[in-house]
Design brief:
Structural class: alpha+beta
Number of strands: 5
Radius of gyration: 15 Å
Strand order of the largest sheet: 1-5-4-3-2
Oligomer: single chain
Number of domains: 1
Helix content: 25-40%
Order of helices and strands: HHEHEEEE
């Protein structure tokens, strides 16, 4: 029974949409001196995906696994001559060692 609950929980977490993740709390927040356009272009080249726009006008990049499941969301906001980068994630996404940090 415990295994069935664990599998159901894992399956539901894997079905998260960017909107679901955006409504969750921020797990990590960093400020970069680079302008938003430069970070956005770097992320587009790394992930070969155009960004989304959130309802409040932020630039957002879904972070997907090899199966196309959304596991996290990076949001970019202009901030004091640089960019505020916020990471929201599901329980399956590891923060450390992510290649997105190279774009900051």
């Amino acid at each position: 029974m415990r295994n069935a609950v664990a599998l159901l929980t894992l399956g539901l977490a894997a079905c998260a949409t960017p909107g679901d993740i955006y409504s969750s709390e921020v797990d990590l927040s960093e400020t970069s001196a680079k302008p938003l356009a430069e970070i956005s272009q770097c992320l587009q080249l790394r992930w070969a995906e155009a960004p989304l726009t959130t309802p409040d006008g932020k630039t957002a990049f879904p972070m997907k696994n090899g199966y196309g499941q959304t596991l996290g969301l990076l949001t970019l906001t202009p901030a004091d001559g640089g960019t505020l980068v916020e990471l929201r994630k599901t329980g399956q996404l590891m923060i450390g060692g992510q290649n997105w940090r190279n774009c900051l």
